[in-house]
Design a protein that fits this description.
By secondary structure, the chain is an alpha+beta fold.
C-alpha cells in the first residue's frame, strides 16, 4: 500500500475562526498532525479534529490570521502529537506542545511518546500500592493519591488554588522510600503572573529540580490546552 502522508493539498475550501476545511483528502486520520504553509511562506502547525466525506477539519495552533483559501497549502504528516522525553526535562518549563519556554536548550530525547497514551488493560495494571503524601490532610485522608495518579484542581476566582497547587507539587513524596520522585506540573489558561508565581515558589522552596512544568498561558492557542 502506498503511503499518502506528506502529500501537499491546495484545496482549502473555507477558513472559520481557528479552523480550516481541506477538501479531497485521502488517507488522513483523526488527531493527525498537519503542516500549513501560509501565503507569506510561514509554516504553522495544526491537528485534524474531524475527517469524513473527503473533507478534513484542521485546527491551527497559531491561529488562521493571514491565511487565504487560494494561497494556503496543507501537508498531513501521518503522525500524531508526540512528546520528546528525557531526564533532562527535570527543572524545565515547556508550553502545552512540549517546546521549551524557559530560554534553555532543546531537549535531546531518549524517546518520543504519544501524548494520547495507550489504552490501559486493567487486568495488566500493577496494583497501586505506593501512597503519595501531599501534606494536605483533606487529600491524604479522604482523596488518597498513589504514584502515577493525576490530581486535577478546579477552582473559581478568588480561591487559593495557586497556593494549594504549589504546596502539593513541592511537598509530594512517596512515604517509606528514598527513591527519586518527580512531579509533572501542568497549568492551563493561567496568566503570566501566575506562571511566574509557580516558578518562583518552586525555586524558593528548592523543589524545582524534581518538577517538570507544562504551562499553557491564557493567550496561548486554545488547542494547546488539550495537549497540556
Amino acid at each position: 500500500m502506498v503511503s499518502l502522508a506528506g502529500l501537499e493539498y491546495r484545496t482549502v475550501r473555507e477558513i472559520s475562526g481557528p479552523l480550516i476545511f481541506v477538501e479531497q483528502v485521502r488517507g488522513v486520520g483523526y488527531g493527525e498532525l498537519a503542516r500549513i504553509r501560509t501565503p507569506s511562506g510561514e509554516e504553522r502547525r495544526g491537528q485534524v479534529l474531524e475527517v469524513g466525506g473527503g473533507v478534513a477539519v484542521v485546527q491551527i495552533f497559531e491561529g488562521t490570521s493571514g491565511l487565504d483559501v487560494s494561497a494556503t497549502s496543507v501537508r498531513f504528516t501521518g503522525e500524531t502529537v508526540k512528546l520528546p522525553v528525557s531526564q533532562d526535562m527535570l527543572g524545565r518549563i515547556f508550553d502545552g506542545s512540549g517546546r521549551p519556554t524557559d530560554g534553555g536548550p532543546r531537549i535531546i530525547p531518549d524517546d518520543y511518546l504519544d501524548v494520547n497514551g495507550s489504552p490501559i488493560n486493567p487486568f495488566a495494571r500493577e496494583y497501586p500500592r505506593e501512597f503519595i503524601q501531599t501534606g494536605v490532610s483533606a487529600i491524604d485522608g479522604m482523596n488518597t493519591l498513589v504514584r502515577g495518579q493525576k490530581l486535577p484542581l478546579f477552582s473559581a476566582s478568588g480561591l487559593p488554588h495557586n497556593q494549594i497547587a504549589a504546596q502539593i507539587a513541592r511537598q509530594a513524596k512517596v512515604r517509606g522510600t528514598d527513591e527519586p520522585f518527580t512531579t509533572v506540573f501542568a497549568a492551563m489558561g493561567i496568566t503570566a503572573d501566575e506562571a511566574r508565581f509557580f516558578r518562583d515558589d518552586f525555586e524558593k522552596q528548592g523543589a524545582f529540580d524534581h518538577v517538570t512544568m507544562f504551562v499553557n498561558l491564557a493567550d496561548d492557542p486554545a488547542i494547546e490546552r488539550i495537549l497540556t
